[in-house]
Amino acid sequence: MAQWDRLTDLPDVYTQQLHELYDRDALPMDVRHYLSVWIEKQEWQRAARDHDLAMALFQVLLENLDIQHSRFVQEESFLMQHNIRRYKQNFQRYLDDPCALANTILWFLGKEKEILQSADLVEQVEFLHVAQEAMETSSQQDLERKMAGLRNEVQCMEHTMFCLEEQQDEFDFKYQTYKMEAVVDEAVEKEQIHVFQLLINRLNECRKSTLSDLNKLLDRTDDLIDILVKKELVEWQRRQQKACIGAPDNVLLDQLEKWFTCVAVCLFQVREFLGKLEELVEKVTYDNDPVKDQKPTMQKRADTLLKDLLKSSFVVETQPSMPQGKGPLVLRTNVQFSVKTRLLIKFPEMNHSMKVNVSMDREAPQIKGYRRFNVLGTKSKALNMAESQNGGMVADFRHLTLKEQKSGGGGKGVSDISLSVTEELHIIYFDTVFEMKGVSVELQASSIPVVIISNSSQQQSAWASVLWFNLLSVDTTDVVFFTNSPAATWPQFGEMLSWQFLSATKRGLSEDQLEMMAHRLFGKQQKYDTCKVAWSKFSKENTPDTFWVWFDGILVLVKTYLEDLWRDGLIMGFVSKGKEKSLLKKKQRGTFLLRFSESVIGGITFSWVEMTITGEPEVKKVRPFTKVDLCQIPFHEIIRDYQILEAENIPESPLLYLYPSTPKDEAFGKYYSKKSGSKGNKCFACTFFLDTLEAKSPMSSDMAQGEGLEPMNALCGEAAGESWLSLLSHPAENLIQTNHSPFVTELRVCSFYFEPALWEIIGELIGRGAVGCFDCMHMYSSLLY
């Protein structure tokens, strides 16, 4: 970046120093600003010692001031006309000593460098204290500076083109005047020819300089396009892949759009500069004209750069997704999905002028049975700024569907390789044409490969394929990825698992939780960094006990029923049975933890520590709770009300402290709801028992709630057994009632007085599916455990 441009981009504290520096008449700031490019290109140090060079630079300085004055006359800027005229008069004092002028300008340039060095030093010190995350911001700031430099060079080039045109017009006017005048004196004519030769030489040098500056401008543009297309856009596409599978990556396109548009605007201006050069050549040309030699090559280069930029600027901003899908990139036939494309070059005049068309799978891979699909719905939309919240140029397709073609695209016997439905990858394509100011370019964007299913039972397996592909593949055109899919390293795999919880519940997985899963996959290892997970071990269709089925079952359970508890860190979750015992045995009686079942898909259980008669710690547990249980009663209420029989048949909660030592009610209290003592809507077994209890007992309703309760002989022994045995005569379908109260206080208290024989009857009812409420099932299961 030019020195003056860097100075004007500095923070306020340094621009104030700049104002103080130029608060004098030796070199006015206006002259420094408008002639900045020319001033910085001259050899002032040599001119300070070389009188002839100093005089030549002095003369060119005055000529440049004349050009600036003419410019402000055309722009009708009266104040700047006055200032430039005054500056030129002041510089006349250097006519006898131009070396003094060179020394003056040299001194100012040196002071400017001191200001820049001071600013750079502060920036370097700050950089040393910046964390790794901020380095991306630094990279973006560097790119911003390069963009500002590009814009400034274009502005300088506008001034250069204006000066070139002025110079050519001066030559043309003098030459046309000479041709109309009849010069008789041969010496005069010879002198005029010599003057014209000097003018044409000067014009030639100016054209060469202009072409050189244009080439440098194209070089800078080429470098920026390389950064944008090969680095920034590629990194965004990778972030988008990871964001599709839950990573918290930034996928906003506003900054990229700003950069792409800036470069495109500059390239269109370069094309205008080249067009202006063509006009000037048509008016004045000569032998070995550099414009005629170099302009065609430069025109081709500028057009190529612009087309490359345009072709990379059309992207899929929001990947295909169904409203109720498990995640993006899983589509179902005959179910609507949405997808959004965006043009990163934003020209308001192009609003609604570019039509985008949608199509599927241009070329089917050579795989036996590979399916083909047709896209149905509104397949053509115009890029517009109305459908974008931030005013981007987008085409938002919201009502597309897929329908399978009758004959598969792969054909018969094309290849012995075959893929399952959820391993097939398909690409959706988007086409449009950019036409503006004589530039016409066909643009194409494509989605990340999607998995297409025909029924909801395939969603789990399809989402596993999406996870695996976007975790491991950076080639978003590789639709045969699963013919030979690579293994994932444990660091990659563990991070992806954490993303699933993070995106679903706003809380990812801890190192301890990930270590438990690594132990499940690889067994006990000193370090897991070099371990790898194969696709077949993660998820393979028709294999019900894969890691993914187990993990996804837990994820669904947490998202549906346990999200608040998980987000608050109350569920330890992923902990092995061995680790569970080692943790609890070191704690006080009643300490418990919540963990996911390793054997029951989508199950969660709790374990607690008790003290044996000999004072030894003993870990106890209950059978896992699944969605069948949790859809009837919230898990925190199960924890609140869970009780077991203690000495003398007194019910007591064994759950006192959530690991490591938080009182249960302190941990879960905010989730509790008011308990209901109503007997309505209980399961048939509960209702039958309570009716029998009320018929055979003289107790008050308060006594039935457990206050002052005594063992009841009326319900023990044969009488109770006969009452409960009568339940077995009812058909199972008549014993099951829906929408029953999930927790029955009366049964919980009174059922502790059953004899073991009665629990056998309850067990039989549970086995037949006749007993459906929490109390019957979990009172029974607590005895089993």
Automatic annotation (TrEMBL):
Q: Where in the cell is it found?
A: Cytoplasm; Nucleus
Q: Which Pfam families match?
A: SH2, STAT_alpha, STAT_bind, STAT_int, STAT_linker
Q: Which SUPFAM superfamilies match?
A: p53-like transcription factors, SH2 domain, STAT, Transcription factor STAT-4 N-domain
Give the residues annotated as coiled coil.
140-167
Which InterPro entries does the UniProt record give?
A: p53-like_TF_DNA-bd_sf (IPR008967), SH2 (IPR000980), SH2_dom_sf (IPR036860), STAT (IPR001217), STAT_linker (IPR048988), STAT_N_sf (IPR036535), STAT_TF_alpha (IPR013800), STAT_TF_CC (IPR015988)
The record's PANTHER family line, in alphabetical order, gives:
SIGNAL TRANSDUCER AND ACTIVATOR OF TRANSCRIPTION
Q: What's the protein here called? A: Signal transducer and activator of transcription
Which source organism?
A: Cyclopterus lumpus
- Gene it is expressed from: stat2
